[in-house]
Design a protein that fits this description.
- By secondary structure, the protein is α/β, with parallel strands linked by helices.
- The chain has two domains: 8-128 and 271-329, Medium-chain alcohol dehydrogenases, catalytic domain (Quinone Oxidoreductase, Chain A, domain 1, Alpha-Beta Complex); 131-266, NAD(P)-binding Rossmann-like Domain (Rossmann fold, 3-Layer(aba) Sandwich), CATH 3.40.50.
- Helix content is 30%, strand content 27%.
- The strands form three sheets. Strands 3, 4, 5, 6, 7, 14 and 15 form a seven-stranded mixed beta sheet that branches. Strands 10-9-8-11-12-13 form a six-stranded parallel beta sheet, sandwiched between helices. Strands 1-2 form a two-stranded antiparallel ribbon.
- It is globular.
- The structure holds NADP nicotinamide-adenine-dinucleotide phosphate (NAP).
- NADP nicotinamide-adenine-dinucleotide phosphate binds next to helix 1, helix 3 and helix 4.
Length: 331
């Protein structure tokens, strides 16, 4: 079944591993949905730090994924593959993608698409999947965050951080966030953090310990933060690692992990199975989409670029000056 998508489309290719300049507009073939897949006519595509890592040659797409960048997009269903039961042509969706979002059409598994939450624009909806799948699966399912617990997120002004602050707050946690400027810290407080810590002037370990310790920490920094995170955890605390912007190798004493019953865990979303991602999507629909509909969780959008200006969007994300998400307008 199809609305007759064209044979060719505009997309952004990674022409070689390198800086933002390697992102170039190109005309490529429109993909055809396989069993259980839908083809989305992309309206907006979210830009995420992992896209920049992929462009630089540091984060290879899974073998079955599109080599084009782009892990999330909103738009309308333009074709469905055999066996698809959940969606019909023309349905408005926002979806987690295995890749390929920087294009006029993108494929995903039907179970990885979600309806547009009530009251949310397609532009906002494109900014939800990558951060909501990542944050929910890591703080709730992996970290076991409970109402009343103290939660610390590093990189509080990032796409991930702005989502984590709002979600943890809506889950009833007490939220602490670190960020690298007074402006970023103010944004974290406006989103619901009871305390934002400018890590250039203040020591997050001392602040968290004075508050009783963090029950859950969501960290993307790693490096020197690893032993400091362990110190900042309360007894029985959980450290969830989702990236290592400062490096993954460090020498540290693990004795406290044992004596204070700490858990160190982590995950990356993209290589997980279709089954696991479908499970996260069900959780989001049940637990997170209602929060988006009430406005308790809204994507914070820093800036918008045209698809053809994807290189500019990558320059912006790599300045780290942005607060929240960067989005590409595709059609
Ligand atoms: N595991 C997963 O499944 C998964 C999924 C999605 C994203 N991620 C990771 O989560 C992180 C956030 O993603 P995002 O798309 O939200 O990124 P983003 O908006 O670009 O945010 C990254 C933030 O990290 C902070 N930062 C701290 N140390 C840094 C360093 N050494 N280099 C650069 N930035 C540093 C910066 O804020 P300050 O100025 O405050 O330092 C920056 O704004 C990325 O590392 C990404 O790879 C992981």
């Amino acid at each position: 079944m199809t609305l007759s998508p064209p044979h060719m489309m505009q997309a952004i290719e990674i022409t070689a591993p390198g800086g933002p300049e390697v992102l170039k507009p190109a005309e490529v073939t429109v993909p055809v949905p396989g069993h259980g897949q839908i083809l989305i006519r992309v309206a907006y595509a979210g830009v995420n730090r992992p896209d920049a890592l992929q462009r630089a040659g540091l984060y290879a797409p899974p073998p079955t994924a599109s080599p084009l960048p782009g892990l999330e997009a909103s738009g309308h269903v333009a074709a469905v593959g055999p066996g698809v039961t959940r969606w019909q042509l023309g349905d408005a969706v926002t979806a987690l993608l295995p890749g390929g979002g920087y294009a006029e059409y993108a494929l995903t598994h039907e179970d990885h698409a979600l309806p547009i939450p009530e009251g949310v624009t397609l532009r906002e909806a494109a900014c939800l999947p990558e951060t909501c799948f990542t944050v929910w699966s890591n703080i709730s399912l992996r970290g076991g965050l409970q109402a009343g617990e103290r939660f610390l997120v590093h990189g509080g002004s990032s796409g991930i951080g702005t989502t984590a602050i709002q979600l943890a707050r809506a889950m009833g946690a007490r939220v602490f966030a670190t960020a690298g400027s007074p402006e970023k810290c103010a944004a974290c407080v406006a989103l619901g953090a009871e305390r934002a810590i400018n890590y250039r002037d203040e020591d997050f370990v001392a602040i968290l310990r004075a508050a009783g310790g963090a029950d859950v920490i969501l960290d993307m920094v790693g490096g020197s933060y690893l032993p400091r995170n362990v110190k900042a955890l309360a007894d029985d605390g959980r450290l969830v690692q989702i990236a290592f912007l400062q490096g993954a190798k460090v020498e540290m004493n693990f004795a406290e992990v044992m004596t204070r019953r700490l858990t160190i865990t982590g995950s990356t979303l993209r290589p997980q199975s279709d089954f696991a991602k479908a499970r996260y999507a069900r959780h989001l629909r049940k637990h997170v989409w209602p929060l988006v509909a009430t406005g308790a969780l809204r994507p914070v959008i820093d800036s918008e670029f045209a698809l053809a200006d994807a290189a500019e969007a990558h320059r912006r994300i790599e300045t780290s000056d942005h607060i929240g998400k960067i989005v590409l307008k595709v059609s």
